Amino acid sequence: DGGITQSPKYLFRKEGQNVTLSCEQNLNHDAMYWYRQDPGQGLRLIYYSQIVNDFQKGDIAEGYSVSREKKESFPLTVTSAQKNPTAFYLCASTLTGELFFGEGSRLTVL
Amino acid sequence: AQSVAQPEDQVNVAEGNPLTVKCTYSVSGNPYLFWYVQYPNRGLQFLLKYITGDNLVKGSYGFEAEFNKSQTSFHLKKPSALVSDSALYFCAVRDSSASKIIFGSGTRLSIRP
Asked: Among all residues of chain A, which has the CA nearest to that of B91?
């Protein structure tokens, strides 16, 4: 079945470590997005990409990095520069406007 | 700059009664507007969208939304609430000339039996 797969579902990290969250889609969508969700704050845009080898910063890009080497993949790296990385991370893609979301990755920094 | 506001953190409705979840927006160009629903520890599911055309948009699970350009609003409605409608609802907006999509802070809908 077509869809978006995020992995891992749960991730624990020690302070000072980088971690990469995977996002893969087989919907043949051009655009992909990363959001962060914190309780009471809704979804905040981290990065987005409209085409391969191109991406733009969202509203809270500091401490994060992305790549878009393939149309179906848009991995997010949470670096040690991110001061408060514990959150629920959501990846999405779109072709005609509405977003299709993965099931999310919950990152906890110990 | 784009912005979306959902003024109510929580909406409580009795089963069988009509429900409304409010959303207002701000964009520089023409808006593309969306509603999504989220169940605990899951991704978001698309409910409906307004791109152009009829101001009343019908979507999944009996939900509808009305686009009001003068009030810059896109409120989500349902004539008769079900207990199973209890979830977190998000409004989102995209400027028609750009790809950035931003979300409101969410409204928790609670339907009591």
From this structure: A42
Q: For tokens 């023409």, name the residue.
A: B30
Query: What's the confidence (pLDDT) of residue A1?
Result: 64
CB contact under 8 A, A35 and B45: no
Does the pLDDT at position B19 exceed 90? yes
Which chain A residues have a beta carbon less than 8 Å from that of B34? 97-99
Residue of A nearest to B35 (CA): A98
Output Rg (C-alpha) for chain B, integer angstroms.
13
- DSSP collapsed to 3 states, A33-61: EEEEEECCCEEEEEEEEEECCEEEECCCC
Count of CA atoms in the C-beta half-sphere (13 A) of A109: 15
Main-chain dihedrals φ then ψ at residue B106, nearest 5 degrees: 95, 150
Q: Is the pLDDT of residue B89 over 90?
A: yes
Instruction: Give CA–CA dist B49/B108, Å, rounded.
Output: 20
Model confidence over A45-101: pLDDT tens digits?
999 999 999 999 999 999 999 999 999 999 999 998 888 999 999 999 998 889 999
* Residue A108 per-residue DSSP state: E
Q: Give CA–CA dist B71/B49, Å, rounded.
A: 18
Q: Is the pLDDT of residue A40 over 80?
A: no
- The tokens for B2 are 């784009």
